[in-house]
Amino acid sequence: MTNVSKKLADLISSTHKKLIDQNKIMPVKTPDGILVGSVLIVSENNVKHLVKNSQVVYHNISLNVVAIKLANMLANNYPSYQMDTLYRADQEYGRWYIDSQFLSASHYRAVAAHDHDRSDMLWARYIESKDRAVTAKKKAEALAAF
User: Fold this and answer.
1) How many domains in the chain?
2) Residue 98 lies inside a defined structural domain of this protein
3) What is the pTM for the complete model shown?
């Protein structure tokens, strides 16, 4: 074993130990999805669902970091109000993101139809929606930080 690979192995084992000491469960890829303790993260298109004991506990999660954090919280039996706060932050991001994508597509259709007043109004709404999506994403990621 070279010096670099020994240092890498030491770094990996120390990181695993730190996570275990902090009650963080490492995600494991399985054929059904990603398993975090007893919670399975199942991807469906661009969203994730959390399944525990064959029941969907949280659905339509937009951000990967939120899905992993919620799965860790579920596996470690955190209070539901903490998980619900994080889930609501993710849902707010998802709503604003979808809204911004819809407004962007509507704007480009209005431009193609030479409806300039409508395209200007849609562009302004798109910019505000995009800004709110960015703010909501930062908030959800901050709540989901390990």
Assistant:
1) 1
2) yes
3) 0.80
